[in-house]
Automatic annotation (TrEMBL):
PROSITE patterns: ADH_SHORT. Belongs to the short-chain dehydrogenases/reductases (SDR) family. Keywords: Oxidoreductase. Gene3D superfamilies: NAD(P)-binding Rossmann-like Domain. Pfam families: adh_short. This is Oxidoreductase. It comes from the Bacteria. It comes from Echinicola rosea. SUPFAM superfamilies: NAD(P)-binding Rossmann-fold domains.
Length: 234
């Protein structure tokens, strides 16, 4: 049976790059997004480029607890993942003191709570198996405060804290936990900005970092991956 990977928010950017990297190694894949057309297109791409790979998906809005649980149930019908990538996220710019009502709640629910609920859905099975690697997709914004990104930064600081706690809780059970904190990466989130492409990182570089961290021996773990554009943060 092939190794398996679960990637939330897998149709674009870093999530899609991670899926392609692990598909190239023969991993069975399960992913989700809110848009079924995007998921169907990704399925065609993966099955066309990697015909031996098992690819499954489910439409889900992971900002809603009940949809996280329904998604997890669907995944369990196929596999218990060897690798779990908590990648779902949303960025809405704004200052803490005057951003639109509801922005804080939406970003916390999407960026943090979805990961919390999903980890709880699979942790017992991973512990019983004594193997698994959980990656939490954070951000440089979880290390450095930026103006006009308050609630997003709060959610990513919280994601880092949760992941650090999870690392300590799961290490006795043989499970690895890694925080991934990318800087500005050329994805759909930056569409329309007037910034040269060379100022951004490539999503494939983040995926390659995740693949490399996954491939260490059982005696070692990369606890944090901080990866920035060569020319500095934007």
């Amino acid at each position: 049976m092939p190794k398996s990977i679960l990637v939330t928010g897998g149709t674009k950017g870093i999530g899609k790059a991670i899926i392609r990297r692990f598909a190239a190694e023969g991993f069975a894949i399960f992913t989700c997004a809110r848009n079924e057309d995007d998921l169907a297109q990704l399925k065609r791409e993966i099955e066309g480029d990697f015909p031996a790979v098992e690819f499954s998906y489910k439409v889900a809005d992971l900002s809603k607890k009940e949809e996280v649980k329904a998604f997890a149930s669907a995944v369990k019908e196929v596999f218990i993942p060897d690798v779990l990538i908590n990648n779902t996220g949303v960025f809405l710019p704004g200052a803490i003191f005057d951003e639109p009502e509801g922005n804080f709640e939406l970003m916390m629910q999407t960026n943090l709570y979805s990961a919390y609920y999903l980890v709880r859905e699979f942790a017992d099975e991973m512990i019983a198996r004594k193997s698994g690697h959980i990656f939490s997709m954070g951000s440089i914004a979880g290390l450095t405060a930026y103006a006009n990104g308050g609630s997003y930064a709060i959610s990513k600081w919280a994601m880092l804290g949760m992941t650090k706690c999870l690392r300590q809780e799961l290490l006795p059970h043989g499970l690895k936990v890694t925080s991934v904190m990318p800087g500005a990466t050329l994805t759909a989130s930056w569409e329309g900005v007037d910034i040269p492409e060379e100022r951004f990182m490539k999503a494939g570089d983040v995926a390659e970092s995740v693949w490399s961290a996954y491939n260490l021996s059982p005696q070692s773990v990369v606890e944090e991956i901080v990866i920035r554009p060569q020319l500095g943060d934007l």
